Automatic annotation (TrEMBL), chain A:
A GO term, aspect molecular function: dolichyl-phosphate-mannose-protein mannosyltransferase activity
Keyword Protein biosynthesis recorded: no
Species of provenance: Calocera viscosa (strain TUFC12733)
Gene Ontology cellular-component terms listed: endoplasmic reticulum membrane
Signal peptide: none
MIR domain sequence ranges: 285-345, 354-411, 416-472
Protein name, per record: Dolichyl-phosphate-mannose--protein mannosyltransferase
UniProtKB/TrEMBL annotation, chain B:
Membrane topology: Multi-pass membrane protein
Function: Transfers mannose from Dol-P-mannose to Ser or Thr residues on proteins.
Keyword Transferase: yes
Family, per entry: Belongs to the glycosyltransferase 39 family.
Organism annotation: Calocera viscosa (strain TUFC12733)
Name of this protein: Dolichyl-phosphate-mannose--protein mannosyltransferase
Biased composition (Polar residues): 805-822
Gene3D superfamilies to which the protein is assigned, alphabetical: 2.80.10.50
Keywords: Endoplasmic reticulum, Glycoprotein, Glycosyltransferase, Membrane, Repeat, Transferase, Transmembrane, Transmembrane helix
Pathway info: Protein modification; protein glycosylation
Coiled-coil portions: none
Length: 720, 904
């Protein structure tokens, strides 16, 4: 069994099976499934080169885009809804699905190889690999245009490279040593490039490296400090610096491809938007001059700054009193009551650039229809006693002059920067009280026609107190505005430093990722995952009663959970026994259990427990990387149970290594039978659940009921 | 045996080295010799411990005090009393969260049930103080700044203040028990004495002072226990100390749940003790198990019992219905006076008039009223409504009625019980509509598998097939066999299946919008979660039932189930406190003291919670120093240096390690909390850090001559006292000037509002008490030139945006509205809720003329003051304010929303 030909043959068979299982009926269904809505769309955007925004890093989506481009997808399909037909719109979706399926299939031989490289017998390695191979969850996920196949593949690749690197520990600083280390680094970067979850893979490998370095530091190793430092810097280079640049390169390509304006524009800063072709800001941004009449909109809620002759009621329902001034509200529609004129507070030159409004200028805002100035004062606003009321003050009454002064505070502007429509996001800061004009989504009562409240926020730096000038209605002369700037030609696209773009996007991704807290019917908490308490309904077809329901192979997953708990049990028993001076486990076996299975266990823990801290939406498929790690643990534990012998040595002996006698693991016939029976059960369960995995054939009510192995699975078309 | 116990300098030195390099030493006596953090024996040439241990059966543990040291301790306590109690009666108005905790004291005294996120001990203590001094519970603690009237608030404040004072000797004794020197203990306790933040927090009716005190007390007892344990286990003293630790732990966690961190600290130390004990192969497993069980008994069982006892007390006191009812289940509410229900008939039959309640949510009763859905079928609304009301009454009708087969008629035929599988109709008695469902999406949950439920029909119309529901009994009561066979009031849980579509009558925690008065949505759900489709009959009448027929009532829940239910409610409420507060802060800012909390502003004075910067920064520095030193030592050990063979180092490492562990466990868990956090949450961690500062001082000056040591200590204490003095106006609400205040903003992020202070002291020096009157006079007449800085209203920041509006709803009393009317008729502006145009007195002058406005607006309702405070309770409160019970007919629907577009 352990002859190289046999090993390779086993690996090859597993790989072939993986391809067969994953590519089987890949064209089914010919409709948009689950998150293909998003990732298919992103692929289309790459092909159309339109800028979009997403919380995930670009690598996996770039690859999907590349696959789509390769099979001739023209990007002219918008993946709008789950269930939209591909064939009707002539989308070459099969090619786009094959790509992740191939990555998903390649993962299986990699799992096998990891186990082999760690010194487990072929049978054990095959056992681990089949846990992933015949897993309905993995199969469902990798057959579709989703990111997880790439994520899991690169994560496995990282583990594999690291194991290879570690095995070369007696050949430090050789070419191969460097090569495998850099390979680890690059794989890590690719993992991170698929999804932020890659950070957890970084943590796994990072911990292993730190433990390794810690042991090198030990005085009993006999290494000089310089030598340890050399090791340290080598790893810093290979596992931090290299991955960082690889990760950057993904974004560099991302920006290079997405050069046109698209759906993601509005997420970005004005400076960023002006680097995109055909962007509205680029096309319509104009400098504003004094005495221009403009409309202003709130950046987040898009309401116009509005006023009308109605007044605030003297007394609110809660007993507080208002100034009874004219109402100032936020109004979502175009209206002449949205027109405000910018009145200077300083003398202006008759013509020329001196009339342009600039950053930090103090102005008054005149409401055209009611001929009154915008004003705020220390009176509580209708809805929020903590914020100031906004109202207006008649133009000819100068008693409140000071309170009508506002400073234009353009965001991220340098001194003297001109104020522009569209792109000049600004805060309007009241000069005497330093509050910022702000609005929030709560509507005023009937007396203000349910319009939005405008008030003064005492936190002058409030991020959501951002406004922009929508358009210039007319200027004092009434001349054609366009001629003012002289040219109407399309402006050139601006350039922005790559790093500025990178950091801006990176921050936005993190913010939005944390903001994904809306509930989803198929979201589930991490505690449910290992036990498969609930799955995700990906797709349903009413007429034929077909459905895709993402759920793992119950036999496989519960075996993994058992293996994990057995592992914890063994480790604790070992610790306790040793504390009492008893040494129950032979040293070589114990080393294997702690170091190799320990690494897998750490990988599982790192890819699982952090999810408990995340408050964003979580889904079962977030557990797939952890499940793969738990399959590795299961192999290690199984090996520990059936055999007291191990393959030794594993690390490649160096020139100075003291060789101890070589040993081979011996597995009895019984373990072959055990694995055989187990894999047969696994396959049986896989086939039993496969209609839910492949979305075909359709099932009638009774059949669905029988497949509902746990009452918490929400399958469709269940019988009564 | 006794002679063996004379401690030698070698044995302990090794015993406490956890370094695996050195093998565990042999204890010189048969007793287990577990090390415990912070308790290493100190190799010192002459120590009080040695002399004291001689000539006794075993060396007693605990604290060794030198003769005369008590006097020193008393002196420190006297200083602490001076610092904490100085003008405790000022301000004579409500400060910060006194709004809540004062109110809770009132509720205890009046026995009105309330729900709060904190366990009861600290609040009970405050109530005790109030009760003893004769408080009658009739003050509402409504707003920050409201003037106290006939409230023994000084007595109530003196409870936290007393515990704040006691914290000082506890600090002293803990340091001594940790084997630190007298001067170290003195330094630590003086630091605590002059910590402005602790002072401010302990001077008001707040829970943190008890919490910190009990945290410290636990630490003291634990240290004492470890000392005892090191000497000999299972002696009488050993048990006493251990039990004290347990009781004190119970007290901490009964003050606030933050006390769990203290439990974690003690728990980790215990585990370490047991782990070391396990490694000692001389200790038999039997003995080890005895150790284990003793600790489990005293550190798990005792605190748990203590904690539960507090809740038992809580339930005993709060026997009447109050504003916390709405949080609790029907059974629970039924235990409260005023919510008790009369016995009702047990047998539900066709023709019964019933009130049905939803089982899984506290949404209340199946309800309908004379308003229609704005969308969907536009038929009458069906909701869940939490209060008793005649609109909750339904009549069960037989649905087999059919022209051809008349079936059962309850009016003419004898009583027939409602059985499983019966097809019924439910008629809403007041509006004569039938409970109806059809294939239209519900108003809020617009999903395919849910249908709208409405009221449909008119008097005389017998209904259509969509009114038919099938009763499915889901669960009966185990003690009432009959309840599984037929529907029995309060005993049977049943589902109602819609006969035509097969969906189940369903409700969930989704509120209808304004048009549904924010009552809970009721739908018919095809994929219903079982728990949310269960209903039961709470009230039942039937004309045909004889008066003697069996009656039932709610079963009284036992203490355990009440206790568990309340824990759950507290947990969900606590987790829901995620709204931002103007003065909240994240844990990262605490060790650097980046921001305080505005407690109270009035009359050009303010109270602002801010620590003593010297003490605070020294403590943070101590933590950083220890951690980096320890890191360096670990690295050195790895490279073969034998630092840990030095017994002095090991001693300090143990003491500091224990204190840093306490600090870390009281600090880092806050990072995991999403709820709003405040600076005062750092105080327990600060206490550990201050102790650590003292220990670091002890280490740093260990080799100095006593004279120099004292000098160093004097300089440190002097600095602390000076900063204390510098910032005392913020702590005591004393006089300050704008200039001094501005120059005291050592960090830009300290946001006490200097604008509130006058330019010079003489400007505004009014004796307290009279001040209000004078100020008010100034305000009203507008006579004062312009001393009022423009932003007096900064206090408003302390208020939770959003919840204020609710506070005053439904308030306008007849008197007030009368005033309002008169004021308006005269053309005057009534007293503003805030100072409108205060900068422009000319605009608002008429106010003083309107004498009618005056009596209503006492000085306490000065503009700056307003509702505020710790949002924790605020949220509870907001939630407690149950919607005013709607009368049988809800107020007319508000006039249709004005169409904004047309009006503009």
């Amino acid at each position: 069994m352990e002859k190289p030909t046999n090993v390779y043959a086993t690996g090859f068979i597993l790989g072939a099976l993986a391809f067969a299982v994953r590519l089987y009926k890949i064209s089914n269904p010919d409709e948009v499934v689950f998150d293909e809505v998003h990732f298919g769309k992103f692929a289309a955007y790459y092909i159309l080169r339109e800028y979009y925004f997403d919380v995930h890093p670009p690598l996996a989506k770039l690859l999907l885009g590349a696959a789509g481009w390769f099979v001739g997808f023209d990007g002219q399909f918008d993946f709008e809804n789950i269930g939209d037909s591909y064939t009707e719109h002539h989308v070459p979706y099969i090619g786009m699905r094959v790509f992740p399926a191939v990555l998903g299939s390649l993962t299986i031989p990699l799992v096998f190889a990891i186990m082999r490289e760690c010194g487990y017998p072929t049978l054990i390695a095959a056992f681990s690999a089949s846990l992933v191979l015949f897993d309905n969850g993995h199969v469902t996920q990798v057959r579709l245009i989703l990111l997880d196949a790439a994520l899991v593949f690169f994560m496995t690749m990282s583990l594999y490279s690291y194991v290879r690197f570690r095995k070369l520990r007696y050949w430090e600083f050789t070419f191969e040593w460097w090569a495998w280390m850099i390979a680890t680094g690059v794989s890590l970067a690719c993992t991170l490039g698929c999804k932020m979850v890659g950070l957890l893979t970084f943590a796994t490998i990072g911990t292993a490296v730190l433990v390794d370095l810690w042991n090198l530091l030990d005085i009993r190793k006999g290494l000089s400090l310089e030598h340890v430092a050399k090791h340290f810097f080598a790893r810093a280079l290979g596992l931090i610096v290299v991955p960082f640049f690889v990760y950057l390169s993904f974004f560099w390509i991302h920006f290079k491809i997405l050069t046109h304006s698209g759906t993601g524009d509005s997420f970005m800063s004005p400076a960023f938007q002006e680097t995109l072709q055909n962007n509205e800001m680029l096309l319509n941004s104009q400098e504003i001059r004094y005495y221009d009449t403009v409309t202003m909109r709130h950046k987040d809620s898009k309401v116009f700054l509005h006023s009308h002759p109605d007044r605030y009621p003297l007394r609110y329902d809660d007993g507080r009193i208002s100034s009874q001034g004219q109402q100032v509200t936020g109004y979502p529609f175009n209206d002449t009551n949205n027109h405000w004129q910018i009145v200077p507070t300083k003398s202006l030159p008759p013509t020329g650039r001196g009339r342009v409004v600039r950053h930090k200028d103090v102005v008054q805002l005149l409401h055209i229809n009611t001929d009154s100035y915008l004003l705020t004062h220390d009176v509580a606003s209708p809805l929020m006693p903590t914020n100031q009321e906004f109202t207006t003050w008649a133009v000819n009454d100068t008693t409140r002059y000071d309170d009508t002064l506002f400073e234009i505070n353009i965001i991220e502007a340098h001194d003297g920067e001109p104020w522009k429509t569209k792109s000049g996001h600004f805060r309007l800061v009241h000069v005497p009280t330093r509050v910022s004009m702000w609005t929030h989504s709560e509507a005023l009562p009937d007396w203000a026609f349910k319009q939005q409240e405008i008030n003064g926020n005492k936190n002058a730096q409030e991020r959501t107190a951002t406004w922009f000038v929508d358009e210039i209605i007319n200027d004092e002369t009434g001349a054609d505005l366009r001629n003012r700037t002289g040219t109407v030609e399309p402006k050139p696209v601006k350039q922005l430093n790559f790093f500025r773009k990178f950091f801006e996007l990176q921050m936005l991704m993190l913010q939005h990722n944390a903001g994904l807290t809306a509930s989803h019917p198929y979201a589930s908490g991490p505690i449910n995952w290992p036990f498969l308490i609930s799955g995700i309904s990906f797709w349903t077809h009413n007429d034929t009663q077909r459905q895709i329901y993402m759920i793992g192979n119950v036999v496989g997953w519960w075996t993994c959970v058992m293996a994990l708990s057995i592992y914890v049990g063994i480790i604790s028993a070992d610790l306790l026994a040793r504390r009492r001076g008893v040494y129950p486990i032979p040293e070589p076996l114990r080393n294997r259990l702690w170091n190799s299975t320990g690494l897998f266990f750490a990988a599982w823990a790192y890819h699982y427990f952090p999810f408990f801290l995340m408050s964003r939406q979580l889904f079962l498929h977030h557990y797939l990387p952890a499940h793969l790690a738990s399959a590795l643990v299961a192999g290690g534990v199984f090996n520990f149970i059936v055999s007291e012998t191990i393959n030794y040595p594993i690390s490649i002996p160096g020139p100075n290594t003291r060789l101890r006698p070589r040993t081979h693991a011996e597995l009895g016939v019984r373990s072959f039978i055990a694995v055989g029976v187990f894999v047969a059960t696994l396959i049986a369960m896989f086939l039993y659940l496969s209609p839910l995995t492949y979305g075909t054939p359709g099932l009638d009510g009774d059949q669905v009921n029988r497949r509902r192995l746990l009452s918490t699975w929400t399958l469709h078309f269940a019988g009564k | 045996m006794a002679s063996l116990h004379g401690p030698s300098t070698f044995r302990p030195r090794q015993a406490y080295t956890a370094d695996p390099i050195s093998p565990p030493p042999e204890p010189a006596h048969g007793q287990p010799f577990p090390s415990s953090p912070g308790l290493a024996y100190r190799a010192r040439p002459v120590g009080p411990r040695m002399s004291a241990s001689r000539g006794k059966p075993h060396p007693p543990g605990g604290i060794k005090m030198q003769r005369g040291e008590w006097k020193l301790l008393l002196a420190v306590c006297a200083v602490a009393v001076g610092v904490r109690f100085y003008r405790l009666g000022w301000p004579d108005s409500v400060v910060f969260d006194e709004v809540h905790f004062g109110k809770f004291a009132s509720k205890y005294i009046k026995s009105q049930y309330y729900v709060d996120v904190h366990p009861p001990l600290a609040k009970l203590l405050i109530t005790l103080a109030a009760f003893v001094s004769g408080y009658d519970g009739n003050f509402d603690f409504k707003d920050i700044g409201k003037l106290y009237e006939s409230v023994p608030y000084v007595a109530m404040r003196s409870l936290p203040a007393t515990l704040g004072v006691l914290l000082v000797p506890v600090t002293y004794l803990t340091l001594r028990a940790l084997d630190c020197r007298t001067d170290t203990a003195l330094l630590g306790s003086l630091f605590i004495t002059f910590e402005n933040g602790l002072i401010t927090q302990s001077r008001h009716i707040l829970l943190d002072s008890p919490l910190i005190f009990f945290t410290a007390l636990t630490t003291l007892f634990w240290t004492g226990f470890c000392n005892e344990n090191r000497a000999a286990a299972f002696t009488e003293g050993w048990w006493v100390w251990l039990t004290c630790v347990g009781l004190s732990l119970g007290a901490v966690v009964s003050c606030k749940w933050v006390g769990l961190f203290t439990i974690a600290t003690i728990g980790l130390c215990t585990i370490r003790q047991l782990w070391l004990l396990l490694g000692d192969t001389k200790v038999s497993i039997r003995l080890w198990i005895r150790h284990f069980l003793a600790r489990a008994l005293c550190l798990i069982v005792v605190p748990a019992l203590f904690y539960m006892a507090m809740f038992e007390l809580h339930f005993l006191i709060l026997s009447n219905s109050g504003d916390g009812d709405g949080f609790m289940s029907a059974e629970f509410q039924h235990t409260l006076n005023g919510k008790k229900m009369q016995d009702t008939y047990a047998d539900v039959g066709v023709g019964s008039k019933v009130v049905m309640r939803h089982w899984n949510t506290n949404g209340g009763y199946l309800h309908s009223h004379d308003h229609t859905y704005p969308g969907g079928s536009k038929q009458q609304q069906i909701t869940l409504y939490p209060h008793m009301d005649t609109n909750n009454d339904w009549r069960i009708l037989n649905a087999t009625w059919d022209a051809s087969s008349p079936g059962y008629d309850h009016e003419t035929q004898p009583f027939r019980a409602l059985l499983n599988g019966d097809m019924i109709r439910l008629e809403h008695i007041i509006t004569s509509k039938k409970l109806h469902s059809h294939d239209i999406r519900p108003p809020v949950s617009e999903v395919d598998f849910q249908n709208e439920v409405s009221g449909y029909g008119f008097p005389g119309f017998s209904g259509d097939a969509n009114d038919n529901w099938i009763v499915e009994i889901a669960e009966g009561d185990k003690r009432d066999r009959e309840s599984t066979k037929r529907v029995r009031t309060l005993r049977t849980l049943f589902k109602l299946r819609h006969a035509l579509t097969g969906c189940y009558l369903f409700s969930h925690k989704v509120k209808l919008p304004d048009w549904g008065y924010e009552q809970q949505e009721v739908t018919c759900n095809k994929n219903a979660v079982r728990a949310n489709s269960l209903w039961f009959v709470e009230w039942n009448e039937h004309e045909k039932l004889p008066l003697t027929s069996p009656k039932v009532n709610y079963r009284k829940p036992g203490f355990i189930s009440k206790f568990l239910e309340l824990q759950k409610v507290m947990w969900t409420t606590n987790a829901g406190l995620t709204e931002r507060h103007a003065f909240d802060s994240r844990p990262t800012s605490w060790p650097l003291l980046r921001r305080g909390i505005n407690f109270w502003v009035k009359d050009h004075r303010q109270i602002y919670l801010l620590g003593n910067p010297v003490v605070w920064y020294l403590s943070t520095l101590a933590v950083v120093l220890y951690l980096s030193a320890r890191g360096l030592l670990i690295l050195r050990a790895k490279r073969g240096y034998k630092d840990f063979n030095n017994s002095g180092l090991v001693f300090y490492d143990n003491v500091c390690g224990f204190l840093v562990l306490g600090w870390a466990l009281h600090y880092f868990p806050f990072y995991l909390m999403a709820r709003q956090l405040f600076l005062h949450h750092y105080f327990p961690a600060l206490w550990f850090a201050v102790l650590l500062t003292a220990a670091v001082y002890d280490l740093a000056t260990a080799r100095l001559k006593p004279r120099y040591r004292v000098q160093v200590a004097l300089v440190l204490v002097g600095l602390a006292v000076w900063t204390y003095w510098h910032f005392n106006p913020l702590a005591y609400g004393g006089q300050w000037t704008k200039g001094k205040c501005e120059s005291s903003k050592w960090l830009k992020t300290w946001d006490f509002s200097c604008g509130d202070f006058p330019q010079s002291v003489s400007d505004r020096s009014c004796p307290m008490g009279v001040a209000d009157q004078k100020q008010y006079g100034d305000y009203v007449t507008g006579a004062s030139a312009k001393p009022t800085p423009p932003r007096v209203t900064m206090v408003a920041d302390a208020h939770q945006p959003g919840h204020i509006p609710q506070q005053n709803v439904a308030e306008p009393s007849a008197e007030q509205s009368a005033t309002l009317a008169t004021a308006e008729s005269v053309g005057n502006v009534p007293q503003p809720g805030r100072d409108v145009f205060q900068d422009h007195p000319d605009v608002i002058q008429p106010l003083s003329a309107s004498s009618s406005a005056k009596p209503e607006v006492g000085p306490q309702e000065r503009p700056e003051t307003s509702k505020a405070a710790d949002p924790e309770e605020a949220a509870v409160e907001a939630a407690t304010e149950a919607p005013p019970p709607l009368p049988a007919n809800e107020p007319e629907n508000s006039s249709p929303d004005a169409d904004a577009e047309t009006l503009d």
